[in-house]
Amino acid sequence: MATFRGVAKDELDIRQVLKARFGYDEFRPLQAEIIGNVLAGRDTLVLMPTGGGKSLCYQLPALCLDGLTLVISPLIALMKDQVDALQANGVAAAFVNSSVPAQEAHGILTAARAGRLELLYVAPERLAVPGFQDFLGSANVGLIAIDEAHCISEWGHDFRPEYRNLRTLRDTLSSAAIIALTATATAKVRDDIVEQLGMSRARQFVSSFNRENLTYIVRPKRRPFDHLVQSLRRHADGASIVYCLSRDGTETLASKLSRRGLPALPYHAGLDSSVRRDTQERFIRDDARIIVATIAFGMGIDKPDVRLIAHYDLPKTLEGYYQETGRAGRDGLPSECVLYFSAGDRAKFTRFIDEIENPKERERARQKLDQMIAYGEARTCRRAFLLQYFGESYDRPDCGGCDVCLAERESFDATEIAQMVLSAVIRTGERFGPAHVVRVLRGSRAWKVLEWRHHELPVYGIAGDYGRDELKEIVSLLEDEGLLQRSPDKFATVSVTAAGHDFLRRRESLWLSRIRGDALDPQASSHDPPVHSNAPRTGGETFSVNPELFEQLSDLRGALALSRKLPPYMIVGDQALQEMATFFPRTRDGLAHISGISQAKLEDFGDAFLNAIRTFADAQDLSEQANSQQRARDQGNGRPDFDPELFERLRELRRRLSEAREQPAYVIFSNRTLEEMARTRPRDRTSFAELSGVGPAKLEEFADDFLQVIREYVASRETA
Ligand code: ADP
Ligand code: ZN
I need a labelling partner for 214 at 20 to 30 A (CA). Which of 18, 171, 176, 635 fits? Predict the structure, then answer.
């Protein structure tokens, strides 16, 4: 296999390395810039969300640079995964940590010293192991990659004292460049990383935290189980994680799901470690599709094809929520995150929070929880909310990927009810929260209403025919509209703004827009995020994934994985399967163009996949042919002008095109369209465009070829 080591770095085309060694066609945002910086020998700090593709930023340079790339990584499980994945791509990589016997570790270090390894992964503790410093002195280390770099900072959420040892690397290996990577770092932590690692001249790359392929859904926690069952069914052929608050909760929910025909395994810190390892292992190998877990699950898991993350209980912080949802769709394919939200869940946490002794921490926990609740209650775009929380601005009016932006809205005339609400706020003295105002409007006999003698007000009971939730929603909408405002203190009293007074004075009419009521029931809102919306586009036409072939290829992948003892996603990713089931590559060259097919994978698995595709495509052509003969008998023969000979010629042309383009024949034209062509014999583009199955794109691409065959055929007939 071609290797790029030792090639002068300004000569090599890193894109070519990307395709040959990793099988990818395109860089993800910032990857190319980061790799360029690393290859130029400069220090680099990378801040990228989970799934953003950090690993490639040091793995690709490792293959181009002379010398060894030393990777510091804190999680043993992850290390093994990464090394397995690299080896599956034919990269010489190994790891040394406490799980590796001394004898074996010695062999690995010897290989590294002799230049036979491209990447060596070690845990930070290793730096303190006797002899390791000597090794570093004698090995030719060209690049140091520090993964999860926030662990070095006490300001981070994951401080690891052993990371402090990394400071020495700068001196021991003064000629090697450093790249530090993290998914979570506030400005403070970032500064700390730079200082601790002595990389003050590092270039910093901060990528957007927007995960375009994730759909964020918040659902009121009403009959959440039924909705969860539906969502899990929808993602039945992918992996899902459901997060619960308590250990008991995970056990109960897992068995309830299993009884509903959705086999699920619980995972929490109270389980035996061997059980936990086994569960995790089965999940990675697609042997267990659904895990119901406390937040403990997912840390060391790099599984790229998780399609659904559901939060059955409220997470404690938005940071945690973002991190957990981040485990969905790392491979960039559309995936869904559902939060079952009830403001009542706040009470569950308040107890925990009250038990926190340190008053400062207690206050912080409370604030974090308030943010989480604000997220659940927001009626604005979830994505924008999350990104703004993490300090990024997002001002597209419609993200197209959250429950708010996807919901069907309805406008309604709110003139009268708005007047009523504003009057009630004024009449009650602008010193109560929305709940009280709503009680007064609905004519409640609650003690607080009577005590304040609000039952004597003219507004008392004037909106008795409105529901409580409906009125609360209207109060919120009026806030959004700027006619009402809420005090920022904990009493959250409502008052009328200047704009609100104007509105009352001018007696303007007011239309508001709200999410349609039926959008909130499970059936109506089970809008499927389009699973194949990433299907590649060619020539302006969207081709679709053939689900049968996809399934067959996925089975084949499972069998290959089993025989190699690798997780299926390390054979090839879902994206690759989808592209294969879309473009039907028939040759090795064609297969090499599929995303994720590196040279090594082409060698290893190419023939297996090509065989499956050929067999499938041939069977399909046969049945398509049989169908059309049937149709020809049924209708064609009845029409004197259906010309079987012309039909054959057209089909011949289609076959040639299909081979040349590596596309299934029916993607060009269906037999039905060819039959119509053979019957109506269009002579020009205008009449060609009238055939059924001919859109503007196909007209552009194919009309000339087919018209030529028809013209030649007709001419040959006339001269004959
Ligand atoms: P992170 O460490 O930032 O969470 P990873 O490095 O694990 O992310 O990458 C997430 C997934 O994206 C992996 O499956 C990886 O193979 C894939 N990936 C990385 N870069 C690309 C790319 N340029 N094109 C397609 N897939 C990529
Ligand atoms: Zn949105």
Answer: 18
